[in-house]
Amino acid sequence: MSSVAQNRVSGRRRRSPLPYTWQRGYLLAAPAFIVMLAIFVYPLGYSFLMSFFRWDLSGSAPFIGTGNYTDELSGRQFNQALRNQIVFSVVSITVEVVAGMAIAVLVNGKLRGMRLARTLLLVPPMIAPAVVGLNFRWLFNTQYGLVDALLRMFNLPNIPWLNDPTWALVSVIIADVWQNTPLMVLLFLAGLQSLPQEPLEAATVDGAGPWQRFWHIVLPLMRPVIMIALMLRIIDTFRTFDVVWLMTQGGPGGATNLLTVYAYLLAFQAVDFGHAAAVSYIALGMSLFVLGLLYGVPWLLAKRRAI
Amino acid sequence: MSGNVSRRKFLAASAAVTAGSLAAPWVARAQANEITALLITGGPLYPKYWEKVVQDFTAKTGIKVRYDLLEFTPLTSKVVTLSAARSSQYDVYSTHTAQIDSYFNHFAPLNSYFSESELADFYPVAVKYLRDPKTGNLAAIPRNMDARVQYYRSDIYQEKGLKPAETWEELVDVGLKLTGNGHYGLVVPGQGDPAQRTFSDLLWQAGGDWVDQANKPAFNSEAGIKALTFYRDLIQKHKIVPPDAVGYQWNENSTEFSSGTVYANFDWPGAFATLSNPETSRVVGKWSTAPYVRDKAAISCAISHAMALNGQSGRKDPAVEFIRYTVGPEAQRLQFDQFTNFPSSQAIAKEVIAAAKGPQATWLQQLETTIANGKEWPKLAGFSKVCTLMFSAIEQALTDQLSPSDSLNQAAAEAEDTMRRAGAYD
Q: What pTM, to 2 d.p., does this model score?
């Protein structure tokens, strides 16, 4: 029924001040838009504004331009957190993507027990990161932990998992890999199962081995899925907080301080919201830059090839 | 139904309901005889304690108190957030000496509500470090004292013919004799604020202090380096402390002793009740207390849990009435009976010490001595941020990433810069 016809049918609707136009669409969407503004855009904009002020509960909050940013970029603790963040993100994403692809290829095969394996893969991503952090904290305890107990059983030396700066970073990466690799597997598995079979069959007929089929056909076809997986993990690693906080609180001596943990310490321990906001926006900028590279470089290369 | 209610009426009713629900909290809070409080909790007894305090207060004054309970760390985070937002959601906050300098501009001064003669009854060390050193304003009023003494396994010490350590040297000697077969002679925390507290005690004991007379960082003095070297050596050289202690905070520190793995520690007043309870301790009846160890001096921290008035509160008078009640004689006696929390009032402390018998009396006297000699780190602008620097510096020395002198020198340079920018020298 057209709007004109509807207006004829209903006298009340004819009195409506709102005609059936695109404006009404906006008006109907307005409540949701206002809620989004209030709970998402406003805090985001406000915290961005905070990053340009000395905002530390001292009463006055003078505008200091980019002072918080330059302080942090030249500061020792920020640079340590940045270094840790880069190592954490690069190593954990690399391991998760490579191991995720390997396991996905394995469970995609028609071997016995694969259905059970696929079900079990759902478990780690379903566990709250806080629980994962607490569990790994105890697993890696040198006195009471299961891991060192097993090492002692085989007459191997204890590893100071959370007590040594290098091992502490390795430990939080292991916890992250344990929780997030299954997610990669599930993504890759979905990708593998939706691949067209014709190119693979043709390659088999042409005598290509499994490795050649994987490298020259499966991997290029899986590229969009891999890109999505990388994007999700890059965003996630720059937001990682719970696991690290519960395992090490960024210690020992800042050895596992990631940008989020450092921003939290600045805000809630040092009560310095200006610097905390600046660190958060540097982290956001970095993840956007990396994502830009991830999508921009292939696009530019493709464009150049087309020319 | 749609035939009976016009759209205009429906929209008007919806708008009224929305406006009513938005205004309801303000209307409810506008009741003159009701205040709101954000209070500290911890353990199963605390909620019952607050309920009793609030009920008694309401019965006496007619003022109702709506309150929320949070444990120390989330409570601190929430107070920080609410202060940053200049919120008037709560009229009264539980707070603590540790971060009080951050709130000097957000908690209403209590000087005008408490006379100097009333304040004279509280332990001077508690009142001193709750004041803004610049203005003299009292940011909070102490509710109970926090100080530490030595807890040791009297059964094991007797069996091995040992006495509790009195000096640093004895602490190492005794620890070495007790360490072995999966047990350790001592445990100290090695992470975050608890590590800074431990270093702070050792710094004062070695004859040093956090800042000099010009308020410039002085913790990297010879005394500071000696203190941090001793602290590190307990873990890394003498190995009388569990290696995992570099990641321990207070809970792990207490649990190592209450589980029977470690034979001595330095713990807060709450440990007395925890260690006496079979549900929370495997060493009931097997421990005793002794004074904190000393080096050149016998000094350790004496801080306090406190009550503060939100500067944004619209009901300051009834809120202060509640604060006054929570630090008054009845509430202080009740919290000692329930959790053995040491009173902040000297009169009540004398009363409970006089009434105590046996090991509890000895312990209370030891605590009182610690409090009488106690100190706290300075409440200068920017010192909260210096604390985060110190967490990292101490942890780096404890885990052998840097030498004690390098880590302290680096932290001192950064601390001076941080305090200068925060206006500590203006």
A: 0.85
* Span B338-353, pLDDT tens digits: 888 899 999 999 999 9
**Nearest CA-CA partner of A294 in A140, A93, A114, A30:** A93
Are A95 and A177 contacting, i.e. CB atoms less than 8 angstroms apart?
A: yes
For domain A81-306, give the CATH superfamily: MetI-like (1.10.3720.10)
Least CB–CB distance from A142: residue in B243, B391, B399: B243
B92-96 vs B302-309, strand pairing mode: antiparallel
Question: Cβ A273–B106 below 8 Å, yes or no?
Answer: no
Helix (H) or strand (E) holding B55: helix B46-61
Q: Which band of pLDDT confidence, cut at 50, 70 and 90, is reported for residue B265?
A: very high
Bridge partner list, B310: B107
Tell me if A143 and B242 make a contact (CB, 8 A cut-off): yes
CA distance B195 to chain A (A): 11
CB B394 within 8 A of CB B229: no
Is B76 close to A55, i.e. CB distance below 8 A?
no
Among A59-63, B26-30, B405-409, whose mean pLDDT is lowest?
B26-30
From residue B271, alpha-carbon distances to A133, A234, A295, B43 in Å are 27, 45, 57, 12
CA distances from B188 to A139, B151, B178, B351, B375 (A): 21, 12, 15, 32, 19
Q: Judge if ipTM > 0.85.
A: no
Q: What is the pLDDT of residues A72-101, one digit of tens each?
A: 999 999 999 999 999 999 999 999 999 999
* Nearest residue on chain A to B399, alpha-carbon basis: A164
- A116's CB contacts (< 8 A; 6+ apart) are none
Contacts of B242 in chain A (CB under 8 A): 143
**How far, in Å, CA of B212 to CA of B71, rounded?**
35
Is the dihedral angle over the CA atoms A22, A23, A28, A29 positive or is it negative?
positive
Strands laid side by side in the B264-267 sheet: B264-267, B149-152, B288-290
Which residues of B fall within a CB distance of 8 Å from A58? 104-105, 381, 422-423
* SS3 of residue B167 by DSSP: strand
Which residue of chain A has the CA closest to B411? A76
Question: Domains, chain B, ranges and CATH?
Answer: 27-146+302-371 (3.40.190.10), 149-300+380-422 (3.40.190.10)
What rounded mean pLDDT belongs to chain A? 89
Interchain proximity B6–A12, CB inside 8 Å: yes
Picking from B244, B381, B387, the nearest residue to A141 by CB comes out as B244
Distance CA B388, CA A250 (A): 11
pLDDT for res B12: 74
Identify the H or E element spanning B230.
helix B222-236
Which residues of B sit within 8 Å Cβ distance of A?
6-7, 76-77, 80, 83-84, 99, 102-106, 182, 190-192, 242-244, 246-247, 261, 381, 384-385, 387-389, 391-393, 395-399, 401-402, 410, 414, 421-423
For residue B343, which amino acid is it? P
> Where would I find the H helices in B263-403?
270-276, 316-326, 329-339, 346-355, 358-372, 383-398
- List, in sequence order, the alpha helices (H) in B71-221: 72-84, 116-119, 124-128, 154-159, 168-178, 192-205
